Amino acid sequence: MLRVRSADGTRIALHEVGASDGPRVLMLHGFASSSQSNWVDAGWGRAFEEAGLRGIAMDLRGHGDSDKPRGENAYEVERFKEDVDAALEFIDAVPGEKIGCLGYSMGARLAYRYVGEEPGVFAALALGGLPAGEPFEDIDRQMADAALRGEVEPTGGTEFVVQLAKMLPEADPTTLLDLAFGVARTPFDPSVHPPVSPTLFMTGDKDDRADDTETMVPLLDDARFEPIPGRNHINAITSRKFKAGVIEFLQSHLG
């Protein structure tokens, strides 16, 4: 593991996943997760190694081994884009090198936004569990904070965010709420700067958090959608079907 510094000084942790050489893929995990839990523990390291893909897994700010600054301002969308800039500076691609990007849930949303504004950086984009709207838009901060104190039972979207924020014992739930509300200041709109890179969307067919993923396909010039059978938003990440679909797609565009 190593850490790179983003534009605001936040240290971002990068982990090597998979093969020691071969085409490189930047990997962006989901909300309240980490490179370890989202990719390594879910078997992606072994799958990438067998496929000859070299993953560069980034712990998003507020997660894993990256810094966890306090306050919603530290988690606005532009800060995350600057973190990707720092990771790409580390990768330091040689001219003509094809780099892929794999994101899940919040990481997929970040990848979609980044690639849309920075065309040509990635040769292929694989996105899992990506809803077509802003999942953090309708959550209630007052309710969420009270729920963390055990004073109320959260409802609606707030319930799901609080549940995720408390899922991993090493996570800081208050920081994750700062993150959710900071990101929500710039609601996700897939019609704004859709990616031009070839894109694969995959979502569990039992995922009620991202059951509208396929509606984004017509917004892109080169995109397709594949369901992940029998999986929901939480357990899709371990699916062999998901891994196989992503690996086949990335190999076809990075080879």
TrEMBL record:
InterPro entries: AB_hydrolase_1, AB_hydrolase_fold, Carboxylesterase_BioH. Pfam families: Abhydrolase_1 (PF00561). Keywords: Hydrolase. GO terms for molecular function: hydrolase activity. It comes from the Bacteria. The keyword Hydrolase applies. Residues 23-134 form the AB hydrolase-1 domain. This is Hydrolase, alpha/beta hydrolase fold family. The lineage of its organism: Bacteria, Bacillati, Actinomycetota, Actinomycetes, Micrococcales.
